[in-house]
Specification:
Order of helices and strands: EHEHEHEHHHEHEHHEEE
Strand content: 15-25%
Structural class: alpha/beta
Helix content: 25-40%
Strand order of the largest sheet: 1-4-3-2-5-6
Number of helices: 9
Shape: globular
Bound molecules: adenosine monophosphate
Number of strands: 9
CATH architecture of the largest domain: 3-Layer(aba) Sandwich
CATH superfamily of the largest domain: HUPs
Number of domains: 2
Radius of gyration: 19 Å
CATH topology of the largest domain: Rossmann fold
């Protein structure tokens, strides 16, 4: 496995891969890797001839006061995990390599960026779109792998790929969970034992809503009410949103018959956690 820190190094490494490998897969991450990230790597390995993973804690997707400086950084351990999965190239640039002095171009996916997480983290979708566009331009992958766990990010990136004519396939992989249901996240490391127990209310809420849907409820309003009742069991969590939306546009839907995304976000202790389930069309 080759580890490169510069854009020129990444381009050269990908050019060498291209000589013999037809399909190149890209797995962008911020590191502190867990089984969720590794599931993307495995999907990329299965679907592509070569895999490039990136490790970059992207400063432009964090607002002042968010956890950029405390975000877990475990470069050596991450590289060992990626090597064990058979990744070909790790691109791990410093911030100054990605954003040299004077960098002023941003990628803004309008409207959709103001929905779900974009409402409470206004600069976040723009930061994600900007860095992912740069990674697409540097690596020029045939397929790029993202997790359904970040459903709003997926919707924004789908729009970006379509609107900007990126010549690649965006592959979305299912959310990987701990055995008790908690969606895996690098931010779970912030949780104390008590907070981790409280955090389970997020997946419990989603499961409860899924069960109500299985029992025949299709209108969003009673489903949200049922979910809020479950969330109220853990008064110490600070709810950001519980919404039922169209997974493509992130706009609220009145009922789930045509398929929907049920998404929840809440602060638990020092961590802001998100989770969601996709409801298939009836
Ligand atoms: P991050 O390092 O948090 O930016 O995540 C990098 C990629 O891993 C994103 O595409 C995430 O959606 C994906 N990811 C994070 N957690 C999970 C999970 N529990 N299951 C599946 N994918 C995940």
């Amino acid at each position: 496995m080759l580890t490169v820190k510069t854009i020129a190094g990444a381009r050269a490494a990908v050019a060498r891969l291209r000589v013999e490998r037809h399909c190149i897969g890209l797995v962008p991450t911020m590191g502190a890797l867990h089984e969720g990230h590794l599931s993307l790597v495995r999907a990329a390995k299965a679907a592509c001839d070569a895999v490039v993973a990136t490790i970059f804690v992207n400063p432009t997707q964090f607002a002042p006061g968010e956890d950029f400086s405390t975000y877990p950084r475990r470069f050596e351990a991450d590289c060992a995990l990626l090597e064990a999965e058979g990744v070909d190239v790790v691109f791990a640039p410093e911030a100054a390599e990605m954003y040299p002095a004077g960098a002023s171009t941003i990628v803004e996916v309008e409207e959709i960026s103001d929905r779900l997480d974009g409402l409470s983290r206004p600069g976040h979708p723009r930061g994600v779109a900007t860095v992912v566009a740069k990674l697409f331009n540097i690596v020029q992958p045939d397929k790029a792998f993202f997790g359904q766990k970040d459903a709003a990010q997926v919707a924004v990136l789908r729009h970006m790929v379509r609107d900007q004519n990126y010549n690649l396939e965006l592959v979305v992989c299912p959310t990987v969970r701990e055995t008790d249901g908690l969606a895996m996240s690098s931010r779970n490391h912030y949780l104390s034992a008590d907070e981790r127990r409280s955090a389970l209310v997020l997946s419990r809420t989603l499961r409860h809503i899924e069960a109500r849907i299985a029992a025949g409820v299709v209108e969003s309003a009673p489903l949200i009410d049922a979910g809020l009742a479950v969330l109220a069991e853990e008064p110490e969590i600070r709810l950001d949103y519980l919404r039922i939306v169209d997974p493509e546009t992130l706009e609220d839907v009145a009922d789930v018959s045509a398929g929907a995304l049920v998404a929840v976000a809440a602060a638990v202790g020092p961590a802001r956690l998100i989770d969601n389930v996709l409801i298939p069309p009836r």
